[in-house]
Specification:
Strand content: 25-35%
Distance between the termini: 16 Å
Radius of gyration: 16 Å
Number of helices: 3
Helix content: 25-40%
């Protein structure tokens, strides 16, 4: 698998307003886009995309409900990698998992 770069990093946050205040006020980051409570920037050197992903939105993406299941540990972040060939990377990961 040929990982080319980290495409996206998004801390998963429980309180979107508090998280945005921390990253903006304490760290000095600005966010130029967003949808609902998800905010992001594509102007942070070293990252193609940096966002703050609310836990409720992560739960909706994974489970179709805004509540994260209590029996599953709450994730801390989402990290996406750009690869040279998505199909080949998927095949390689599947082979490793069944392996």
């Amino acid at each position: 698998m040929e990982v080319q770069f980290i495409a996206s990093v998004a801390p998963i946050v429980r309180d979107a307003k508090a998280a945005r205040a921390f990253y903006a006020d304490a760290l000095g980051l600005s966010f130029e886009g967003g949808e609902a409570d998800y905010v992001y920037t594509q102007k942070l050197d070293g990252a193609k995309h940096f966002g703050l992903w609310p836990l409720s939105e992560a739960a909706t993406a994974c489970f179709g409900t805004t509540e994260w299941p209590s029996e599953i540990p709450v994730p801390q972040a989402s990290i996406e990698f750009e690869v040279a060939d998505v199909a080949a990377a998927a095949d390689e990961l599947e082979a490793r998992a069944t392996g």
